[in-house]
Specification:
By secondary structure, this protein is an alpha/beta fold. Helices cover 33% and strands 16% of the residues. Helix 7 links the parallel strand 7 and strand 8. The N terminus is likely disordered. It binds manganese (II) ion (MN). Manganese (II) ion binds next to loops.
Length: 352
């Protein structure tokens, strides 16, 4: 990692600090104390510094992206039908992501015996798409511009919402990238065609995706309870190629069999609505729905899909920090995002 502010005095201080026991724990010391900056740079604890995603470099000029992952904030929440507040999602998730950014090269997972997201995976933060209040079309267009810039640079786009309507410009940006399959993890089907003229709200994105010629199918997981989508929407979804699975059904299949319902050769775009999770662990969202997933339900599904399929893009939406007094929802969002990125690039390295 870059250490632009490192002075001689700080180098000596850091050399001392690295022997502190807390640092040794944070390192996940495995006898391979390589690549991190402890001996030569700042300690740079999670609460220190400017909160880009994962404390990775900020790239203001979207024509100069050199990265494997490009993170874009999409702080738009005018598509909500109940509680607003997801416009503050990108800031909350970036802030929470610093918890997982201790500056050592990668995250060692003892269960998998793997170091995920080592220094070979270049992640950058593009900042936020510009949002124009009351103007959904222009705001979505600005989000689409950011995703197109990421794709043009060959980077995997990770878009942090914002409400679920921001998925619409994300999927639009794939119009010249070949066929994709959508894996939606969500409490709600989001398959409303049009109501009172609204076609680009947060109840519409999966319908808009299913209409695309290059979207070959949808797997909609976690769907339960009262939804913005009425029965006709479910009928339309199935007719248009959706596989709709509830939380209880997903648990019945288990993560591996669930992942196998997605065609093996599909290039998969993942859209994760934080309200897919149980409100007991993720209260910070506009339309919570009880009976949701717990952490490992989703983590293991994402790991299985990353091993089986090429992942081409990812958005994480509907974190609304005003309803998240402990910050657990934002931490969950950051943790699952970083782990999913780890799985994706671990699978790519294994297949290379
Ligand atoms: Mn949704």
């Amino acid at each position: 990692m870059a250490l632009p502010y490192c002075t001689g005095a700080r180098r000596r201080k850091a050399l001392f600090v690295v022997h502190d026991w807390t640092t040794a724990i944070f390192c996940g010391y495995s006898g391979l104390m390589s690549e991190h900056g402890y001996e030569s740079g700042r300690l740079n604890l999670p609460f220190v510094g400017i909160a880009t995603f994962g404390k990775r470099p900020y790239v203001e000029d979207w024509s100069q992206i050199e990265a494997d992952v490009a993170v874009l904030g999409a702080p738009f929440d005018a598509g909500t039908q109940y509680r607003s507040g997801a416009r503050f999602g990108p800031r909350a998730v970036r802030d929470a992501s610093t918890l997982f950014s201790f500056g050592h090269a990668g995250a060692y997972d003892h269960e998998d015996d793997r170091v995920y997201l080592g220094s070979d995976v270049r992640i950058v933060d593009l900042g936020d798409a510009d949002i124009v209040h009351t103007d959904t079309v222009q705001s979505h267009a600005n989000i689409e511009t950011g995703v197109r810039a990421a794709l043009k640079a060959g980077a995997l786009p990770l878009v942090i919402g914002g409400d679920h309507s921001v998925n619409i410009p994300c999927v639009n940006a794939f119009d010249h990238s070949g066929p994709i399959h959508i894996l939606q993890i969500d409490a709600h089907l989001d398959f409303v065609d049009e109501r009172h003229g609204v076609r680009f709200g947060h109840g519409n994105p999966m319908r808009r995706a299913a209409e695309k010629g290059y979207v070959t199918g949808l797997t909609q997981v976690g769907i339960r309870n009262v939804s913005s989508t009425a029965r006709e929407g479910y009928d339309d979804a199935r007719r248009m190629g959706s596989d709709i699975i509830s939380v209880r059904q997903a648990r019945g299949y288990g993560p591996q069999k669930l992942a196998e319902r997605i065609p093996a050769d599909a290039r998969v775009y993942v859209t994760l609505d934080i309200d897919a999770f149980c409100p007991s662990i993720a209260p910070g969202t506009g339309t919570p729905s009880h009976g949701g997933f717990l952490y490992y339900d989703v983590l293991e599904l994402l790991q299985a899909v990353a091993r089986r399929n090429e992942i081409v893009g990812f958005d994480l939406v509907e974190v609304a920090p005003d309803y998240d007094p402990t910050g657990s929802t934002a931490i969950l969002a950051a943790q699952i995002s970083l782990n999913f990125l780890g799985f994706i690039f671990d699978a790519r390295a294994a297949g290379a």
